[in-house]
Write a structure and sequence with these properties.
3 helices; mainly alpha
């Protein structure tokens, strides 16, 4: 542990931020998995709902600085392509 007061604060805030980012990323993976499961089963309504929710979550993660904007764009694009291929 650091001896300098500002570094002690920095360690604490980094730990908080890491925990928050971990929660955001976990939620992102959950919604992407739900979309994938719905797309695999061929359920277009569930896939559409999951796609919309996952896209929103990705955009929110970008605005919070959890993931890079290009990563979110790539994931959204891949999900949209997948959704269009299941015959929606």
């Amino acid at each position: 542990m650091a001896n300098i007061k500002s570094q002690i604060k920095r360690v604490k805030t980094n730990a908080k931020r890491t925990e928050r980012n971990r929660a955001y990323k976990s939620e992102l993976r959950t919604w992407i998995r739900r979309f994938r499961d719905a797309a695999d089963s061929g359920d277009t309504t569930a896939a559409a709902d999951a796609l919309k929710k996952a896209s929103t979550k990705l955009d929110k993660a970008v605005s919070k600085g959890v993931i890079h904007a290009n990563q979110a764009a790539n994931k959204k694009s891949a999900m949209a392509r997948r959704f269009n291929s299941i015959g929606a």
